[in-house]
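Long-time lurker, first post. I've been practising inverse folding by hand and with some scripts of my own, and I keep getting stuck on stretches where the structure tokens seem ambiguous. Below is the full token string for one chain I'm working on. Before anyone asks, I'm not after the true native sequence, just a reasonable design that respects the backbone. If someone could post their per-position residues I'd love to compare against what I wrote down in my notebook.
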């Protein structure tokens, strides 16, 4: 049966729309908005409930014209306003999220390092391009990264193929979420990890080490 060229075109356009609207378009790279020309956005120490921004120490400044501010994927609500942790010019601090908008050219995160953790029981995993580490309360295990593989035709999710010190294989998938919460802290995270070996399956939240 001959395929309808109009149907094929519609499918291609629909696929393109799905890709362009996917979470991979918001991979924690931001531009500054709402700051007057020539002014700067102050990066502050971690905000605390009950305090005022002027009470939190200033750590650095970001020009109002900046277009490549790197987010860690960690944020929190304080006084009904959301604050996001960002890195700029080697300084990491917190800014009011209302001044952040998704950058036009998000950075590929395949070469970045993710710090992830979960609870019940407590565990953690560091995922990086070449190596990582899995930790539990009573042990740590070095991991070797054999491959970091993004989803076909997308920047995200990322699949990590890993081996531990015993030569056992593990797999971890990092995906971008609206919010991932660990149930133990005030933080919301932009990334979720699913980690498995031959016997165990873990789910946790992640942020970028920047």
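-- Answer (accepted) --
I ran through it position by position. Result:
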């Amino acid at each position: 049966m001959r395929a309808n060229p109009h149907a094929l075109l519609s499918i291609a356009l629909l696929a393109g729309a799905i890709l362009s609207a996917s979470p991979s378009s918001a991979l924690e790279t931001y531009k500054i908005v709402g700051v007057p020309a020539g002014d700067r956005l102050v990066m502050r120490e971690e905000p605390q409930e009950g305090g005022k921004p002027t009470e939190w120490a200033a750590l650095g400044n970001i020009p109002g014209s900046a277009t490549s501010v790197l987010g860690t994927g960690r944020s929190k609500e304080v006084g009904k306003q959301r604050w996001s942790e960002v890195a700029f010019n080697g300084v990491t601090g917190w800014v009011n999220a209302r001044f952040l908008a998704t950058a036009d050219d998000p950075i590929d995160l395949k070469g970045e390092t993710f710090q992830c953790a979960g609870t019940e029981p407590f565990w953690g995993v560091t995922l990086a391009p070449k190596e990582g580490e899995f930790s539990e309360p009573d042990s740590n295990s070095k991991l070797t990264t054999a491959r970091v593989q993004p989803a076909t035709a997308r920047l995200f999710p990322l699949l990590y193929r890993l081996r531990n010190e015993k030569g056992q294989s593990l797999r971890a998938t990092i995906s971008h979420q609206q919010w991932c919460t660990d149930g133990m802290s005030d933080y919301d995270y932009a990334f979720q990890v699913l980690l498995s070996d031959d016997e165990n399956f873990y789910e946790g939240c992640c942020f970028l080490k920047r």
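A couple of notes from the structure itself: The chain has one helix and 15 strands. The helical segments are 5-20. Happy to go over any region you disagree with.
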